[in-house]
Amino acid sequence: MPWTKVYLNVEEMADTLQKEGLRGISYHEAILEAQAQAMESDDRVFIMGEGVDDPGGIFGTTLGLAERFGKDRVMDIPVAENAMTGIAIGAATVGMKPVFVHMRNDFLPMCMDQLVNHAAKLCYMTGGRLHVPLVVRAIIGRGWGSAAQHAQAFHALFMHIPGLKVVMPSTPYDAKGLFLAALDDGNPVMFIEHRWTFNAVGYVPEEMYRVPLGEGIIRREGEDVTIVALSQQVYEAMKAAAILEADGISVEVVDPRTLKPLDEELILSSVSKTRRLVIADVAHRTGSVGAEIVCRIAETSADILVAPIRRVCFPDTPIPASPVLEEAFYPGADDIVEAVREIVKGS
Amino acid sequence: MPWTKVYLNVEEMADTLQKEGLRGISYHEAILEAQAQAMESDDRVFIMGEGVDDPGGIFGTTLGLAERFGKDRVMDIPVAENAMTGIAIGAATVGMKPVFVHMRNDFLPMCMDQLVNHAAKLCYMTGGRLHVPLVVRAIIGRGWGSAAQHAQAFHALFMHIPGLKVVMPSTPYDAKGLFLAALDDGNPVMFIEHRWTFNAVGYVPEEMYRVPLGEGIIRREGEDVTIVALSQQVYEAMKAAAILEADGISVEVVDPRTLKPLDEELILSSVSKTRRLVIADVAHRTGSVGAEIVCRIAETSADILVAPIRRVCFPDTPIPASPVLEEAFYPGADDIVEAVREIVKGS
Amino acid sequence: MPEATALDIPADIAIRLSRTMMLIRQFEEKIVDVYGVQDMKTPVHLCIGQEAIAAGVCENLRTDDYILTTHRGHGHCLAKGASPRELYAEFYGRRQGCARGKGGSMHPVAPECGVLGASAIVGGSLPHAVGAALAIKMQGGDRVAVAFFGDGATDEGVFHESLNFAALKTLPVIFVCENNFYAVSSPILARRCNDNIVLHAQPYDMPNEQVDSMDVLKVYHAAHRAVARARAGEGPTLLECRTYRWKGHVGPEADHEKGCRPKEELEDWMQRCPVEYLNQLLLAEGIITEEALAESTREIERELDDALEFARQCPFPDPREVLENVYYTGA
Amino acid sequence: MPEATALDIPADIAIRLSRTMMLIRQFEEKIVDVYGVQDMKTPVHLCIGQEAIAAGVCENLRTDDYILTTHRGHGHCLAKGASPRELYAEFYGRRQGCARGKGGSMHPVAPECGVLGASAIVGGSLPHAVGAALAIKMQGGDRVAVAFFGDGATDEGVFHESLNFAALKTLPVIFVCENNFYAVSSPILARRCNDNIVLHAQPYDMPNEQVDSMDVLKVYHAAHRAVARARAGEGPTLLECRTYRWKGHVGPEADHEKGCRPKEELEDWMQRCPVEYLNQLLLAEGIITEEALAESTREIERELDDALEFARQCPFPDPREVLENVYYTGA
Ligand SMILES: Cc1ncc(C[n+]2csc(CCOP(=O)(O)OP(=O)(O)O)c2C)c(N)n1
Ligand SMILES: Cc1ncc(C[n+]2csc(CCOP(=O)(O)OP(=O)(O)O)c2C)c(N)n1
Ligand SMILES: [Mg+2]
Ligand SMILES: [Mg+2]
């Protein structure tokens, strides 16, 4: 099905989609389109963020929106993440639907109070009398010697906070569909985009559609091992799967798409079949989302896994600047391949 | 050994310690003494925090220190957690050893930027040329209808951040020894105290001693199931163990004492023996420290556990105010007992 | 008691101000009365002594205006029209509480009359008021939003960030700082080098007033000017309302009993009780009689007794409700 | 080029100021030259056009004074005495880099000459300078700490919190705001209702000056006064240094090429090049000759070529070093 397909390159897409007469666009175009359609169809939606009206257009994801909808609805803001998040919250409680864009996820600790102590809790602590329809777009991903403060990912932190939802689309199709679903959700949703996926391409329908929060997807079916891959690692996992196929190892790739709520069932059913698990993440190891997934499995039964699990993720160090150190720091398809081989061989 | 013992009440302590001629004091007295001795012996140490010089003395843990060491070294501060944390960091990089006290852990999201983006990373991103000897005392624990913003616990979040250390002492002995070790460590240490342990009593030597970071401890030996209990849950686990003993279930209680670095070996060796695991935590379930512990086990081997694991922790909801809801919210010894019975029966 | 100045507002407004202040005072004193029994299990931050601010500001507001408040928010909610029954029920953790027992004393809410909640994080609700004002501007109309907060909140960066954005976008928001000179037991001069909060408006070219808030008429007039500007699209105002709290930071005792501040300081301020002050003025001007005042007191007392009774008889939430309201699930 | 005013400082200081500015300018231009090859893999935020601030402020500092800087920090480090070799080596990600290749362009550090690092989080290093000043006050002596930051940082609450504490404790810290009227491509008036950063000092009764920072002498004098006050125990100062960056926010291109701002704006400011300005003055006053200036340029060029060469020949760190320096493990 074209909407579940992960394309590893533009050529592959062109071949497939053009034949079927389907439109293929990039991830950043999908987000742009989703936002434009949302604003077009709903007066309550507005976009705020540092530089959203800037010529770069946040990796192209807000390009032209200020011109089209005006700077009041596509609002550049002061460099003041905490109050600005609180302002988004306040507006959300009285009928607006703000989309808050962070060019880098690393700036979220500045507004952790408003996210964790306020956005996440307002519905609960008012007994449901208020709620906070807010989408926080946070961009993660490796830069270019960006170092410790400019390439982090905090999805594991947000997953721990009741009241937040956490979404990590990997494909253009999901980017649009999950964005529109997040905007409809009525709750604060951390919408996490990996900058290395922005040029990924795929089938994206022109009309508005929703991909429901909390539903994962099988990107590739397999028998021997399950790779739960998050965000950009879905692409690495697909590459790894292709390599492993040549070895006769059949890999199932699961893309949870949303982390909170998590599609535990899908993961469990995959792992119950393959009985081996590798998690490919784009964040530090300790306390990562993978730990939660493994724990959910272990809560279900001690009999599911027949091999140790592996996490392919960042080491527990801040992010270094030097290209040599970055190379050592970032995991890729080869690391996934190695991890899979380890646990398939070992058992 | 008196220094590993968990006393469930003052009478038990009085009996045991007085017989042996050992001094027994409370957890809050232990912290007070540790800080006083640190300040006495090292000019670089100073304490800062909202209300540290206040008549309540932060649950008694700073009582009399301002009078003894002066308000310059026991410093009340503006309600400005982020800059004040940055100020502590700046002072720490040039030879001071600040202790930053937060009356409630819930205020830490205000200074998440300085903790996560700065304190945790300065050593790494300067290639070790600077370091940040900083102890952040953060108090967690159930209040009295304190609701969503005044009784949270964030140790799982900090555990995810490379460059931070995370300590959660449960006994007076460890409170003093770990505090002094944290202060010597030269790194930013999140020192997490549960307010329900402040009146716990135990043997505490008068001299300065250190309990090394990264070493857990067996609080009670057993054969059938391991309970890894954090902070105040150590007491609940001990109570549960006593109840379960009557049922013929032999419980081993492991107190990790520090979460980062984690004494993986100790936990592994206990679980390798009992092959059953319950984690008793004082925080929300999803993304909790327990998940990381289970994942470390699963990374080691798929053969260790013979039963599903259980997490006894907060549900994934913000904290409610009503006493009836609080009662439903907070887990205790009975929940641990039930969890143990489930996995012992089930296998 | 200082010399009563002449009453410079219509009698009906003055009488409403008096009644609102008395309602707040008696509401809080009733908590003092019952708190010792320990069945109201929520940390209460009483505003006795500070009533004139809530009353004087909210008298200028309509039901469709918004307010945001703090841990010390009972008075603001009452002045804006929140139901004493639902407030007490909330403090008793009951299902009919304004937040269904989820929020307690620190999180009152009453959207039906524009109370958009409270934060127990110092400074936390300030930007929410600015956000509400931004929404007003986007949605149109002449509604306004008010942020109540303490002097402690002005230590926090979020206060300054909020002021900046409100000024930048000319938003209809009024920042009402209740400067009671303390944050918990920390005196203001231990936290900043002067106690003139009002100065913080200046970098933003924002209109501002420092108001003696023992005199509710002064508060009323200052708020009147600020609200008029906001409704006219002229943007935000910072009001620094100088006041004093008679009770401790939390709970029904006074601070001098814990050694947090001198007893004389409290006594001096109590000489200037804002409720007494206005009532004396109304009596002096012949606007009300002693009897009418006494009857008013009794009437409020009856209303609050009824509210307390209601609250205590409300059922507790079902324990399973702990799992509800984590997420909004549709209207 | 405006009329050169008379030189009002000793010639040796003036010559040093000139040399420092030229060093910074040439250091940055060399990055522009080599950046296209893409082997300096780090996001560079160049300070061309802003050199007078680093030079004028640091000329007043001793080695044992501290500075804290930002993503745009090369100039500050050089002016404080950091080694061009170690800086370039850092930008090339080499082991002899000042941060062993861990920090890159945004995290220069040189504790040996008082450079306590930089934050790439806007406003992030501001409180560190205040903390260093607090330590100085506790440890004794007349050292000072300087925080360099941009106008963008003044949007952040942490700026205000830092000012408040510095004023409260009368700390020896100088806040140097480089107001270049932009944060990335966001003009200052899109972020605040006026562009007078200096106003923010007033609520804290803090001495402050707005300084035309195309004239390094003005910066020098303002910093001189501020540093003197700080050394004398008279507390902090806020300097707003008005300036302009010639290059884009990040990288070697100019902003008008990306459509972020009008080309004319840049051209107007370039008319007032701070390096040229001082050098013209020195020539006019006969303090240096054209030849000496040319020789100076060449000398710096040689030093920087050597530094660049050094940097490129340094070994890369061992990949295993990625795991080092996460924690301090003892001296
Ligand atoms: C971010 C944060 N820091 C600290 C606290 C603890 N705290 C609760 S109330 C308070 C003082 C508030 O003072 P002020 O704003 O003047 O309000 P008042 O209580 O005087 O009405 C503090 C510090 C908190 N709730 N939130
Ligand atoms: C907390 C935070 N928010 C946003 C950013 C993205 N960002 C990087 S530099 C910058 C602008 C800084 O402007 P200014 O402080 O004026 O410094 P300049 O670049 O003009 O020297 C921004 C918004 C950041 N690094 N940190
Ligand atoms: Mg106050
Ligand atoms: Mg700038």
From TrEMBL, chains A, B:
Pfam families: Transket_pyr, Transketolase_C
SUPFAM superfamilies: Thiamin diphosphate-binding fold (THDP-binding), TK C-terminal domain-like
Swiss-Prot/TrEMBL keywords: Oxidoreductase, Thiamine pyrophosphate
Cofactor(s) needed: thiamine diphosphate
Lineage, opening ranks: unclassified sequences, metagenomes, ecological metagenomes
InterPro entries documented for this protein: THDP-binding, Transketo_C/PFOR_II, Transketolase-like_Pyr-bd, Transketolase_C
Organism of this sequence: marine sediment metagenome
Residue span, Transketolase-like pyrimidine-binding domain: 25-200
Gene Ontology terms, MF aspect: oxidoreductase activity
Protein name: Transketolase-like pyrimidine-binding domain-containing protein
Automatic annotation (TrEMBL), chains C, D:
GO molecular function terms attached to this record: pyruvate dehydrogenase (acetyl-transferring) activity
Keyword Oxidoreductase applies: yes
Ranges of residues in domain Dehydrogenase E1 component: 19-319
UniProt KW keywords: Oxidoreductase, Thiamine pyrophosphate
A Pfam entry, by short name: E1_dh
InterPro entries hit by this protein: DH_E1 (IPR001017), PDH_E1_Alpha_Subunit (IPR050642), THDP-binding (IPR029061)
Cofactor names: thiamine diphosphate
Signal sequence coordinates: none
Gene3D superfamilies referenced in this protein's UniProt entry, alphabetically: 3.40.50.970
Single biological process term from Gene Ontology: pyruvate decarboxylation to acetyl-CoA
Protein name: Dehydrogenase E1 component domain-containing protein
Species whose genome carries this gene: marine sediment metagenome
